[in-house]
């Protein structure tokens, strides 16, 4: 095991210890996030030259999976932070302000949040109503109805808006605002079915900052070259952790049952075999995606291609659906012991947390987008690459 | 060819301005072209010019400006002639 993953072990233990309380009270996993900071894992992806860990996305995904096995909320917060970090790394290079900020993320272990949606755009992150209103060397922004995960706990927020008040809704840019530069007015609570610790409350976000804090790259590029892939891959890694823990609980149940009834397999044994097959599909889907992304990062045309967008969207769709199927199998295998919240075979929280997978960026919206892309994109009929 | 492309951009691009006012090299995405409107535009170009865009041209850059589109079409028409 390599060094960052070793550090991850302490964090995972901390997350596991508080997971029930985080879920029950719908509170921010403050202990686990502090442990992430203490282990310097918030700067894991940031290049060594800027004081970070210089790790690969695969290493980050591995930690997402480990955390997902114990506290999906902590895992998702960690994943979402890293998605923001990846945008900084991919698109902040060459900009003095963003490079200095990356260094600060590493030095001070700043937690990065994201305000990419707003009321009135129907969940479509690639449309903005609000705009960056420039006034000399500074800009102002006011975004209403933004769902900002752990917004109240973030040290900085990356926010999207139209380039200017006369720009079309899809001509967007993104800026980094530090906590001292914005105000959050809470407009909605987060009493959700699962992922209760992400505290994804609704806010009106308003702030002002120097224009140099706006990324020079268009948000369209940031979305397609760093956000889309890292989000779908890291979220999937979290859900893989959730599903694999549910299945391992079901396996314990089957083994216990088999020891008690040595003369024949328990009825759940067959389902375990079937679910293990689905878990393998889920895993190769994600691992193949991580490889595809690593390869595409060497080639800007591939990173911006439709086939890459189709592949990354399919990873999200596939892993969000498979995770539910696997957890449902685990529930059927363990029966009442899985349904109850207080047994070692309980999968209730797994099910509730994983149900978020099909609604965080709605699968139906992704299918609609894919169906449009597939009017152009040819079906890839090769086995290899 | 450029006039035909401009007409199709007007019909399919859902831009905030008329294509006639856009320079050959101006960024179409900055005038509101989305990736989905780009797909509609691609289908219209394929129909009008009787070509098929290969996978390698299905990226953001190919539809980034009127001249980028014309470049793709020239390449495809050239391949056909060869």
Layout of helices and strands:
The complex is a heterodimer of chains A (385) and B (82).
Chain A lengths: L2 H23 L4 H9 L18 H12 L3 H20 L4 H13 L3 E4 L17 E3 L2 E11 L7 E7 L9 E7 L3 E7 L12 E10 L8 H42 L7 H29 L3 H4 L2 H29 L1 H4 L8 H7 L8 H11 L12
Parallel strand pairs in A: 1-4
Antiparallel strand pairs in A: 2-3, 3-7, 4-5, 6-7
Helix pairs in contact in A: 1-2, 1-3, 3-4, 3-6, 4-6, 6-7, 6-9, 7-9, 9-11, 9-12
Chain B lengths: L1 H11 L22 H15 L16 H16 L1
Helix pairs in contact in B: 1-2
Identify the strand order in the major beta sheet of chain A: 2-3-7-6
Q: Specify the number of helices of chain A.
A: 12
Could you give the distance between the termini of chain B? 20 Å
How large is the radius of gyration of chain B? 12 Å
What is the approximate shape of chain B?
A: globular
How confident overall, as mean pLDDT of chain A? 94
Report on the structure:
The complex is a heterodimer of chains A (385) and B (82). Chain A is built from twelve helices and seven strands. With 385 residues, chain A is of the alpha+beta class. In chain A, helix 6 runs parallel beside helix 9 (306-334) and helix 7 (268-296) runs antiparallel to helix 9 (306-334). The two termini of chain A are 29 Å apart. The mean pLDDT of chain A is 94. Chain B is mainly alpha-helical. The radius of gyration of chain B is 12 Å and the shape is globular. The interface between A and B is medium-sized, with 25 and 20 residues.
